[in-house]
Amino acid sequence: MRSARDDQPVRPTVEDEVAAAGSELIGGPMGRRALLGAGWWSPVRVIALVAIGLFALGMVQKLPCYNYGWFFGATTQYTHACYSDIPHLYYGRGFDQGLIPYFDHIPQTVSGGMDYLEYPVLTGLFMEVAALLTPGGGTLQHREQMYWFVNAGMLMACTAAIAVCVARTHRRRPWDALLFALAPAFALTATINWDLFAVALTAGAMAAWSRGRTVAAGVLIGLAAAAKLYPALLLGPLFVLCLRAGRLRAFASAAAAAAASWLVVNLPVMLTHDASGFHIRPGWAKFYTFSQERPIDFGSVWLFLSQRTGNPLEDANTYASALMVLGCLGIGVLALCAPRRPRFAQLAFLVVALFILVNKVYSPQYVLWMVPLAALARPKWRDFLIWQACEVLYYLGIWFYLAYTGSGDKHQGLPPEGYQLAIVAHLLGTLYLCALVVRDIWFPERDVVRRDGSDDPSGGVLDGAPDIWVPGSVRRERRTEPASVARVEWGTGSRNP
Fold first, then answer.
1. Considering the entire predicted model, what is its pTM?
2. pLDDT for res 482
């Protein structure tokens, strides 16, 4: 029988020393007699307001660029670290001229060589809606400012949705979502691009799966993949976990719903028809061809190797694909051979982090993909902040490097050697957090989420499910393990390490 205490939210200021120390700024750790979730100030509402507040601070950080940096002087937006793609693409992709993404060809004089919009369909729709809401009239500069402001408002709504979804994914640990709401890299990168839209859909999918709504989770994964490619990677961890738990029917329903929702969104834009039949529209295919053809770019391990060796690494696509396949196989083996079935959030974080580590480009806003997953996978403030410090270093490093390369003979900014150190900081910080997640999987007694006896609170139909398909060696180890050890290691709700 569950006690009232079992239903109370976990207090991070009690179990996390860094959270306890940080709480001194607002009066110290929450006492045991505090009424958690009482009245209007529930954890979910508080977290959503904190996330919106930090998003607003990120908008203030972009103020130098809003006033003049995006329009006067190529390096000002870099020296103030306030660059954003949004105002530049308003003109550069023809939104100021009323061009329809994927259907209308972009003039070369405007796009700088990009003939169609190079974003997935739902992100293109997001951009188009923002363009329709942008007031007309005035100078181009004024309309670009308004376009950024409209997008910022829409992305703020996405921020609130992410905060709510992350807070509700684990019923007893809503405060873990503060890791997302207070992440420094989130505030700095939120309005660089449109990634928060895909992150919001992905967070919704995670929350739906945690409630056992497999079809809804699949629909949201499909929609998220129609806004950005990376959410489709979540189907891999779901397959392996459902295989181990004997819940393949749940996976099949989610995968089918994901494919159906992706097709519903993409087919109207994907196909065109003429006298000879149906054809793939080149505007729709631009995102996929551009991703395949683009050379190695900023932030990637491949750029670091290329700059250090002088080798252009023209086969980076092959190397990245091979490493991605090998890495996914390794994650799959880990999931099947771990002493206890990993949590969904842990594997989701690992597979997205792997994609980022081996990709040909690492734009600063890609960190947004990982922040909510990291909050669910390993809610430990010390390690999370170490990783965030590395990401902030990279955020500053890329803009100062671009200032250096764009300032001519003045060389104001960070030289290539300094930028390479920033890339290394990003890579090592991400690998550090991945290593800790892997350790938690292999030694589940170290997993802070499972200390109260929980299995997989974000796992939905997987939560509490017995292992059906487990490699023989793992099964034999379990069979010979003393019952007392098993109770301590796997947790029964009575353990208090």
1. 0.90
2. 37
